Amino acid sequence: MTRQPREGPADRLFREVFTAAPDGILVVGLDGTIRFANPRSAEMFGYAHPDLVGSPLDRLIPGRNRDRHRGYMAEYARHPVARPMNAGLELQAVRADGSEFPVEISLSPARLDDGPAVVAMVRDVTEAARLRAFGAGTLKAAENERRRIAQELHDDTAQRLAAVKLALKRMQQLDPHEVAGFCDELRSEIGAVALGVSRIARGLMPPELERIGVVESVRIWLSNRVGEDGPAVSLQADPVDAFLDRDQRLVLYRIVQEAVSNVVRHAAASSLQVKVKDGGGVVETIIQDDGVGFDPGFRFERLGGLGLMGMRERATMVGALLSVGSRPGHGTRVRVVMKKLENKRKGEKDGVHS
Length: 354
Prior knowledge:
Helices cover 48% and strands 21% of the residues. By secondary structure, the protein is an alpha+beta fold. It has three domains: 9-124, PAS domain (Beta-Lactamase, 2-Layer Sandwich), CATH 3.30.450.20; 129-204; 214-350, Heat Shock Protein 90 (2-Layer Sandwich). The strands form two sheets. The protein has a five-stranded antiparallel beta sheet. The protein has a five-stranded mixed beta sheet with strand order 6-7-8-10-9. Helix 8 packs parallel to helix 9 and helix 9 runs antiparallel to helix 10 (307-317). The radius of gyration is 30 Å and the shape is elongated. 20% of the residues are buried. Residues 299-306 and 347-354 have low confidence and may be disordered.
């Protein structure tokens, strides 16, 4: 009977590192067969471990890229040197269910008992790619907002002030009896300028949030945003301002703004319901419409403004949970759940986080 070699400390350490590694580790023969795979690899690609080991590496690569990948493997076999993570390449991998995701890969040459092999360290960078896309979207949205404000200031405020300046010059030539009536016109024009500036400022940071609270701010914004040609709006709201801190109130307001704007622009809805509810330990907000809906399986990068991605990022900033449900032809439902202020503080004290 052949005795198995006794496992030493170095062997145990290697096995523990291989098993516990946060990145996927694949050892691939030069024939393209996966010889070893750590548990994280199986989890990342959605396979049972026995189904992954012994299978061709091609099954983890999108079909359109396989020929090119084989060329890379052949070239690497001729010049086997360590290659850092990603090495400037934007790579895609495919899971067992057929879904694709972005990865970074580093390669190192290795040798097995029966010949040379390649060790591939695989990192799922879906979150990093999402954050990069959000950052780019944020910058673009900020630039668009600056452009919009500049346009409004030029087309409305600056033009009105120029008209007032000309009117004042003209007033010097008026008969004293005509001055009173002309002053009324000037007051009206200056009032219109003030309203325009106030409207622009309110869009940047609504003063109502501090003065009358998030619920009434949402009510005012809805009445201004959804015109006669928009969907019929219903707002049902509990008094929740005392349960939310300043950041939570602002995030809630912005999410409602974004969700409602998406409905008005894209949904072709006849009705829109906004509910803000005191739900015990949480504040729950639901924005629901009966519009055209969409397929959640399709990845929308933007639905106007920062879109769904922006709403998710805003929710994450304050530890809130956001979910979006929709079906083509059956409308869309956006749900936001925020911890109440006292529960949020208790959770932080106890080390509990959303």
